[in-house]
Each structure stands twice: as structure tokens, then as C-alpha cells.
């Protein structure tokens, strides 16, 4: 499968300045930008910056960033699911995962994450994919936001809906381990029925297990 990446951008006015939401951006562009020291949700900033550069280098990898002048203050990643995850057990070239979304605290509340997803979906190429995201409450910044689990879940659903992702049922044990966890997905309009059927198989792999 050929992975075509078309660059899109939009400006977003916030109380802390104008952000440029742009991407997918190349590994070279990522390398030239400063990575904000408050982007610590997944790894220390230097390590996460390096990880994003590696993702951008992958054929299917897509990084959309929110940039304040020369500094990355938010991002979203798209790439094939981890080989150790259920979603890779049946190899699908047209299934990619929205792996991470992060925005520094000083720009939260300005719809930065929603706009990252909107810019990502501007690319017509995204209609060729099933895009999934797995939400686990233990990854959520409950302390930093002051939200309880259910309010955070509602916030995540609202954010993901900006990119056209909706709730999908699954029997995945890790997702089923807590009622706040969920699978969300967006099935592009060009995805063939066979791929949708394979995705359904992945969602319910334990159906015939006793």
C-alpha cells in the first residue's frame, strides 16, 4: 500500500498566542524545531522528540504538530499498531493507530487537540484507513486536569469526535478490564468491506473462546 502524505496547516488564535497546526511534517522538520520541556506525558521530552522523529520517518507514520513560533507545544501521532497488540495480530495495511495526543498545560482549553485531529483529517488519504485509538484510564492526566474518570472519558470522546472517531465495542481483555476504557475508530469512506470485516474479527477475537 502506498502511503501518501499531503501537508495541511491552519492558524489557531489562543490567549497565549497564535499556534500553527500543521502536518504531516517530516522527520527533518521535526528535528529542526524545539520540543517543549512540558511535553512529558509519555517520555522525557528529549526521548519523546526522538520518538516522534522516528515515527515521521516511517512510510505510514504521520505527525501533526501545534507550533508556537519555533516550539512544538502539542502533537498527535498516527502509525501502525504495536506488533505486540491485538490490532496487529491480523496484518492490515489500511489500519493505523492514533497513538498519542499531547498538549502542554498552558495551551489546554483552547481546542488545540481537536484542531490537531481536524488538520490530520483534512488529508483525503485518511479516507483509505481504519483509524483506531485505545483509551485506558491509567494513561489519563486525572491529577493535572482535576477531572474524575468519567468526566475525562467524556472529554476524550468529545476530542476524538473532532477527528470523526466514535465508540466501537470490543472484547479486548485490557479494554474490558475497566468500564471507562474504550476503543474508538474512524472507518474511511474508501475502506473496502473486506477490511471492515477483518477489523470486526480483530474486535471480537474471543467470541468463540470458552
Task: Summarize the model shown.
29% of the residues lie in helices and 27% in strands.
Write the layout of secondary structure elements.
Elements: E1 8-14, E2 17-23, H1 27-32, E3 34-35, H2 45-57, E4 62-68, E5 71-79, E6 95-103, H3 112-120, E7 130-135, H4 142-145, H5 149-161, E8 166-168, H6 173-176, E9 182-187, H7 193-203
Description:
Helices cover 29% and strands 27% of the residues. The chain is α+β, with helices and mostly antiparallel strands and 210 residues long. It has a single domain, classed as Aminopeptidase (3-Layer(aba) Sandwich). Strands 1, 2, 3, 4, 5, 6, 7, 8 and 9 form a nine-stranded mixed sheet that branches. The chain is globular, with a radius of gyration of 17 Å. The mean pLDDT is 94. Residues 23-189 form the N-acetyltransferase domain. InterPro entries: AcuA (IPR024699), Acyl_CoA_acyltransferase (IPR016181), GNAT_dom (IPR000182).
Q: Compute the number of strand runs.
A: 9
Task: List the helices and strands in order.
Answer: EEHEHEEEHEHHEHEH
Q: And the CATH topology?
A: Aminopeptidase
* Strand coverage percent: 25-35%
Number of helices: 7
GO molecular function: acetoin dehydrogenase (NAD+) activity; acyltransferase activity, transferring groups other than amino-acyl groups
Pfam families: Acetyltransf_1
Keywords: Transferase
InterPro entries: AcuA, Acyl_CoA_acyltransferase, GNAT_dom
Amino acid at each position: 500500500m502506498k502511503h501518501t502524505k499531503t501537508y495541511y496547516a491552519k492558524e489557531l488564535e489562543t490567549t497565549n498566542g497564535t499556534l500553527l497546526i500543521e502536518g504531516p511534517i517530516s522527520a527533518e522538520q521535526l528535528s529542526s524545531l524545539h520540543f517543549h520541556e512540558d511535553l512529558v506525558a509519555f517520555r522525557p521530552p528529549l526521548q519523546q522528540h526522538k520518538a516522534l522523529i522516528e515515527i515521521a520517518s516511517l512510510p505510514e507514520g504521520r505527525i501533526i504538530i501545534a507550533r508556537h513560533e519555533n516550539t512544538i507545544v502539542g502533537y498527535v501521532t498516527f502509525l501502525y499498531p504495536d506488533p505486540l497488540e491485538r490490532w496487529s495480530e491480523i496484518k492490515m495495511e489500511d489500519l493505523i493507530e492514533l497513538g498519542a495526543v499531547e498538549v502542554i498545560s498552558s495551551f489546554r482549553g483552547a481546542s488545540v487537540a481537536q484542531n490537531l485531529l481536524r488538520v490530520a483529517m483534512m488529508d483525503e488519504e485518511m479516507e483509505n484507513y481504519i483509524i483506531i485509538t485505545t483509551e485506558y484510564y491509567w494513561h489519563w492526566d486525572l491529577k493535572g486536569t482535576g477531572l474524575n474518570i468519567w468526566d475525562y472519558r467524556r472529554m476524550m470522546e468529545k476530542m476524538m469526535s473532532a477527528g470523526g472517531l466514535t465508540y466501537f465495542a470490543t472484547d479486548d481483555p485490557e479494554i474490558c478490564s475497566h468500564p471507562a476504557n474504550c476503543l474508538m475508530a474512524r472507518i474511511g469512506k474508501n475502506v473496502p468491506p473486506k477490511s471492515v470485516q477483518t477489523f470486526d474479527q480483530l474486535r471480537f477475537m474471543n467470541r468463540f473462546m470458552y
